[in-house]
Amino acid sequence: xxxxxxxxxxxxxxxxxxxxxxxxxxxxxxxNTELIKQYDKTIIGRCMNPEAQxxxxxxxxxxxxxxxxxxVAGTDLGxxxxxxxxxxxxxxxxxxxxxxxxxxxxxVALARWQPKMPRxxxxxxxxxxxxxxxxxxxxxxxxxxxxxxxxxxxxEVDLDYGRIKVIIDTRKELSFDTTVDFxxxxxxxxxxxxxxxxxxxxxxxxxxxxxxSHSVDYCPLTVKSPQKKKEVxxxxxxxxxxxxxxxxxxxxxxxxxxxxxxxxxxxxxGKGKGKMYExxxxxxxxxxxxxxxxxxxxxxxxxxxxxxxxSRGYTAEERTRPHQGGAAWIKPKSGGxxxxxxxxxxxxxxxx
Length: 352
What we know:
The structure is a single chain. The protein has 352 residues and is of the alpha+beta class. Among the domains are: 34-122, Alpha-Beta Plaits (2-Layer Sandwich), CATH 3.30.70.330; 124-218, no CATH class. The chain is 21% helix and 21% strand. Strands 2-3-1-5-4 form a five-stranded antiparallel sheet. A five-stranded antiparallel sheet has the order 7-8-6-10-9, with helices on one face. A three-stranded antiparallel sheet has the order 11-12-13. The longest helix has 28 residues, at 226-253. The termini are far apart.
């Protein structure tokens, strides 16, 4: 494990390595009152997915988006955290009110600095959420307030557009749909309404567990073992090799309507420069060569009877050996004539 992988993770170890004795350091007491006052105009930020977000680029770009680049100073705090020191209080209020923000297609949490911050601070992001499916007879503030309180902390209700502003705890999974029971009011009759939740300005979340902190590729619910991942990567390579071999057979012999059976259509090579091959019409076609491509009556002869030959009644003995000119020809089963003499393609007659 590299040093970068150890940063921020040593406290999470549960095995024997995590229980080893660590160096403990004590800082003597000193007056930090003035130091704390310096952070009264500081915003602390945290990237929801630090592995996918560039904090250094974020520090440069966010002030430009806020249009306060000449009135703010940013610092990378490490572990996906950063801080911005503002000059004007008004700028801080404007930025916090304009949330939520995202960078590199993942969300960013912002909050005022405070002493004794938890490790995952800030962990809250305000979202405007549009509510879809509320019956008109219950379209009122209590209904939207109840929905917002179930999702987080309701800040504002907008009945004109049917939405609510809710502070969401990013450590919990998102909710995109739910059912609402209407207990009070007229015409309720104990009915349930299915509603959908549309988060405005939401970027980046796991489609499996609906977390804001990782993508589906790194979700603990879907991550496979390294061995399985390796097998998945190797499978397409073997398939590509099979396709390459099949493609080579098709180029040499033609498909012949037998896609995927390349082994039945093989290339037949002689010892000379001539090349012989088997066509799907079961004819032996030869080209002139200075050397014969037939090896006599040896058992290792390269001539093979095809499936079509057997169906037509041909036998291996009926294929006579080529003459010294080197051209291959087929002897008819009974009778027939030989065309030409040592040149061109021999004409043959089929069985009578």
